[in-house]
Amino acid sequence: MSAAADAAPPPAAPAAPAGPNHGLRIFLLWLPLAVIADLVIWIVWGPHLPPGTMSSSAANQQFDIKVMAVLAAPVMIFVLTYFGYALIVWRQRDGDTEDGPALHGNSRVQASWITITSVIVLFLAVFGTVELKIANGAGAGEGPSPIWKPGGAPLQVQVIGQQWKFTYRYPQFGGFETTQLVLPEGQWVAFHVTSLDVIHSFWAYQLGVKADANPGVDNVAYTKPEHTGGFVVRCSELCGLWHGAMFDYGRVVSMSAFRTWAASTRVQLAAVTRILPPYATTYDPTVVPQINKAMAKAGIGGANGYYYPPQDPVQP
Amino acid sequence: MMAVREEARWWLVSLPVRIATLLVAFLAVVGGAVFILIHYLLGGPPVENFTAGVRPDTGAQVSVVMQEDPQNTVSTRPDWVSYFIKSPTTGAWVHTTLFTVPAGSRVNMTILGYDGCTPLRNPYWGRVTGTIGNVIRVNGKPTSLINSWSGCNVGHTFSIPALNVNVPMASPGLTATLCGTSPCTSGPHKVVTFSFMTPRHSGDYIWQCRVPCGGGFLDGFGGPMQTIGFMTGSMQVVA
Predict the structure, then answer these.
(1) pTM score of the predicted model
(2) CB pair distance less than 8 Å for B124 and A167
(3) B206 and B157 inside one domain
(4) Owning domain of residue B171
(5) A272 to B127: CB separation less than 8 angstroms, yes or no
(6) How many CB pairs under 8 A join A and B?
(7) pLDDT tens digits for range A25-51
């Protein structure tokens, strides 16, 4: 054997066959599923998502839920696709007793995951804030000094929670109070939600309005009814023995029908309206001058015939 | 070594003792559950039946007589205000707020108001609604509105929200000496009468008082206001 032959490098070992590109496979499985899911959510399921489109705030909430579902579905489908792929492709075969390859960090995957989820979360934060603003609070109680309010002159409706019934006052129609909630179509409504006793919560489901009713607080929520029809009002704060029975039904009617109803109801309730306290954003019946006067006149200071103050005594 | 010793000590307890302990514990748990079930869930005031001999949905009339008292000396809560119902069979006053009436019938109510006055928290409930003619009679005098803020003249209310029935209960004068033993059989009181129609279908209709009359509780909203058998109850309509 010559020296030259001795110096020749050994023949290169044959290259290991390239494995399948798992990432590409998973992506190709995930992409059509995600597109199909998003189309189904947006076109088929979306129009039926709660709370419907009866009011501006309801439609706004439905849109928001659709957007979130469209964003969430691809993420969920990716997780499930990866899970299924791993179960099938990387499962342990019969007779295979070897350990799998050691796991090492993959900075590219980690960076992608963090980047994508961060972008989604930050987008939702901005999106949610913008949606609250353009929808004038999106039907939620904004407290006594709302920062997002519609222009013009909304119809004022006061919602008064009391165990276990809501009553409604219409200050622009003489301040009458009624157990019926009737609203005009196409008109912005400002709900002033308060309570006379414990904490309640005014939830007009199909209108997409939900606002806590706290005693001594004027909680304002806006909406614009877009379609005529009926809607359900429920108390959504556990408020005592008959909380479950604290519900009623409201109506959205045409503007002309609303005006007719308001005018006739105002006349019908004139007698009781005269004995109501003047319209105010909140009420404290324990300091009504007439009551105090009557009590003082009668010399009543004990338990019978007067309002029990909160400190008398604290409930055991 | 310690663990072994502990284990050995445990096994010193004989099998019968261990079985007996288990049995006692099991019976204690079951007994507690049964007590809660019977005492709190299944227990409660009796139901007075006003349907006997009445065919539902025929417009027949039934008469229900109740009274509201400043106390309930026949219960374990003698200082709580309370309603009573007069039994249609025995004529005795019964400490309950549960009663049954036939569907599609006219209920003629008579309520004796023995309790003193407390103004309504919301004077809106001084308006009579849901009764036939939207009127009640107070000592025979037709009334459709009582202003409880102009004087102390309302003791409680009888309200069935689902039927839009709301009746302010007139009370004796401010200076009246109220009956001191329940059920009241004498003493100053107002007689409130009214009628309403029951629905034509079966159902349970809660009724309640709207005056915060739970003395000793926060804002007067606890105690009798939240307890069946005192100031709230249920009217069962039977078709």
Answers:
(1) 0.82
(2) yes
(3) yes
(4) 46-238
(5) yes
(6) 113
(7) 999 999 999 999 999 999 999 999 999
